[in-house]
Structures are given as structure tokens and as C-alpha cells.
TrEMBL record:
<feature type="signal peptide">
    <location>
        <begin position="1"/>
        <end position="17"/>
    </location>
</feature>
<comment type="subunit">
    <text>Homotrimer.</text>
</comment>
<protein>
    <submittedName>
        <fullName>Protein CutA</fullName>
    </submittedName>
</protein>
<dbReference type="GO" id="GO:0005507">
    <property type="term" value="F:copper ion binding"/>
</dbReference>
<dbReference type="InterPro" id="IPR004323">
    <property type="entry name" value="Ion_tolerance_CutA"/>
</dbReference>
<comment type="similarity">
    <text>Belongs to the CutA family.</text>
</comment>
<keyword id="KW-0732">Signal</keyword>
<dbReference type="InterPro" id="IPR015867">
    <property type="entry name" value="N-reg_PII/ATP_PRibTrfase_C"/>
</dbReference>
<dbReference type="InterPro" id="IPR011322">
    <property type="entry name" value="N-reg_PII-like_a/b"/>
</dbReference>
<dbReference type="Pfam" id="PF03091">
    <property type="entry name" value="CutA1"/>
</dbReference>
<dbReference type="GO" id="GO:0010038">
    <property type="term" value="P:response to metal ion"/>
</dbReference>
Length: 136
């Protein structure tokens, strides 16, 4: 029972330790923020999803990249299409909620929603991201 409680508390304790470290040192804790990649069929869908993400305050910034070519396997066949890519800057703690929400509104059966933690960056920009995405 104690082991289970310890394992359940680990993410909370780690998060508190990282926040304390950042507060004391004034430095950025690697991985506090993430960038999510979301593919969209066309520009209108991309804009609609980007606006919905922003309206829900699930990101501080969404970049809509222009049309690009894509190759992928779908149901055993090699497919080729065009897509618009969203780059979503947010708190890492919001990635689960962001993914669930996008899946609920995205027209694709299996939309690409992947994320990478931000290792380092402009401290002022990262602070701005934090200020514009509410905590959990």
C-alpha cells in the first residue's frame, strides 16, 4: 500500500521539486513546455482547429504551416496527399487534454497529434507561454 501511494505521489512530488528548483534558480526546467504537431486536411480545417484550441486556452501560440506533401501507409496502402501542419506551443501538462480535445473535433479517423518537450529556449518567450496557458 505504501509503495502504491509512493508511486502515485511521485509525479506530484517531482513536479513540485521542479517548480521549486525553477523558482530558486530562476532557470527554465527542461520539458515544462511542449510543442505539439497536428496534421490537417486543408487550411480551413487547420484554422478552425487552431481557433478552437486557442478558445479553450490549451495553447499560447499556434503556427499554421503552409501546404506540404505527405506520404504514409493507410490500411496497407501507400498514400500520397497534401496537408497543413499546426505547431502548437503549450504547457506539457496540457498535452493530454489537448490531444483528447483535438481528437473530439478533428475530421480524420486517426489524426496525427504528437508532441515533443521543449528542452531550452528564450526564457522570456517560455515565460509568456506559461502566462497564457492556465495551470491544470
Amino acid at each position: 500500500e505504501v509503495v502504491t501511494l509512493s508511486l502515485l505521489m511521485y509525479p506530484v512530488l517531482r513536479s513540485l521539486a521542479l517548480q521549486l528548483h525553477a523558482a530558486v534558480t530562476g532557470g527554465y526546467v527542461s520539458g515544462t513546455h511542449s510543442i505539439a504537431f497536428i496534421n490537417c486536411l486543408n487550411e480551413q480545417i487547420a484554422k478552425d482547429i487552431a481557433r478552437a484550441i486557442m478558445d479553450k486556452k490549451l495553447a499560447a501560440y499556434v503556427t499554421i504551416l503552409p501546404k506540404s506533401s505527405a506520404l504514409y501507409f493507410w490500411k496497407g496502402e501507400l498514400e500520397e496527399s497534401t496537408e497543413i501542419l499546426l505547431l502548437v506551443k503549450t504547457r506539457t501538462s496540457k498535452i493530454g487534454e489537448l490531444s483528447n480535445y483535438v481528437r473530439s473535433i478533428h475530421p480524420f479517423e486517426i489524426p496525427e497529434i504528437i508532441s515533443l518537450p521543449i528542452d531550452q529556449g528564450n526564457p522570456l518567450y517560455l515565460k509568456w507561454v506559461e502566462e497564457n496557458v492556465p495551470r491544470d
